[in-house]
């Protein structure tokens, strides 16, 4: 009955939302100052309970990874996170869940969050409402099958695209949209430039309240991560979980009547 009611709620309200497709972007600043984004994006995220940055008055960092497929480096990333006692969120696709079940279970066992990156990684604002619902629910159902855990609150919009409609629909399905305030071109596996490039890219743009987007297919990230964590801590930064952010900001999933 709940699923029927939720489907009805989506079907009857979706027409009220703008379908204009937006491509997430942020505007980096010098001297490790927090970036900004388009005012219209800020307004949409505030309206639909999403976020892209933490409290910029605190030297806190939220480490997130997008995992569409495995390239052999996630184990090393997890080893580092375990050794350094750093929490992270891994946003995964259906392919990743199907093929890397042991890594998924390890993520949870070691205290990390697994988030929804959709089943097939489509641009959510460019598919219909039923497809959005299938993409998110099929991924969550598989996650529950693999882990026995039914909790999945956070969504990283595939391809960084969104619309008012996709934000509203995903919120109605119980998700908090999590964008990012730091990223660099780290996903091109045939164009890795060495750990120092990754380290310098991160240290140059890190800032208080950063929500970092990294990809664990990157050998550079895996090699740089230990020194990044140590040196940021030496600068007074703390690594926090997205759950810490949610509790501080009283972010709770939308529930349909």
TrEMBL record:
An annotated GO BP: carbohydrate metabolic process
Pfam families documented for this protein: Polysacc_deac_1 (PF01522)
Q: Name one GO molecular function term.
A: hydrolase activity, acting on carbon-nitrogen (but not peptide) bonds
Task: Spell out the SUPFAM superfamilies in the cross-references.
Answer: Glycoside hydrolase/deacetylase (SSF88713)
Q: Which Gene3D superfamilies match?
A: Glycoside hydrolase/deacetylase
Cross-referenced InterPro entries: Glyco_hydro/deAcase_b/a-brl, NODB_dom, Polysacc_deacetylase_ArnD, Spore_PdaA
Can you cite an annotated GO cellular component? membrane
Q: Where are the transmembrane segments?
A: none
Pinpoint the NodB homology domain residues.
59-240
Protein name (Swiss-Prot/TrEMBL): Delta-lactam-biosynthetic de-N-acetylase
Protein source organism: Alteribacter keqinensis
């Amino acid at each position: 009955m709940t699923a029927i009611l939720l489907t009805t709620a989506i079907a009857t309200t979706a027409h009220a939302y703008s379908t204009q497709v937006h491509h997430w972007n942020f505007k980096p600043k010098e001297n490790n100052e927090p970036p900004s984004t388009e005012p219209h994006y800020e307004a949409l995220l505030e309206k639909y309970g999403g976020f892209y940055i933490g409290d910029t008055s605190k030297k806190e960092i939220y480490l997130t990874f997008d995992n569409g497929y495995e390239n052999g480096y996630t184990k090393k990333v997890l080893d580092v996170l375990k050794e350094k006692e750093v929490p992270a969120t891994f946003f995964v696709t259906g392919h990743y869940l199907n093929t890397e079940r042991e890594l998924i279970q390890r993520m949870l066992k070691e205290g990390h969050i697994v988030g929804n990156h959709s089943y097939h990684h489509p641009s959510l604002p460019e598919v219909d409402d039923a497809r959005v619902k299938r993409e998110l629910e099929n991924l969550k159902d598989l996650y529950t099958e693999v882990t026995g855990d039914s909790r999945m609150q956070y969504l990283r919009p595939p391809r960084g695209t969104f619309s008012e409609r996709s934000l509203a629909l995903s919120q109605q399905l119980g998700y908090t949209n999590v964008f990012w305030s730091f990223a660099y071109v780290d996903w091109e596996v045939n164009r890795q430039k060495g750990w120092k490039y990754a380290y310098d890219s991160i240290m140059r743009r890190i800032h208080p309240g950063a929500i970092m987007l990294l990809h664990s297919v990157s050998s550079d990230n895996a090699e740089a991560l230990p020194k990044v964590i140590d040196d940021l801590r030496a600068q007074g930064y703390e690594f926090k979980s997205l759950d810490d952010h949610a509790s501080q900001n009283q972010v709770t999933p939308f529930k349909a009547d």
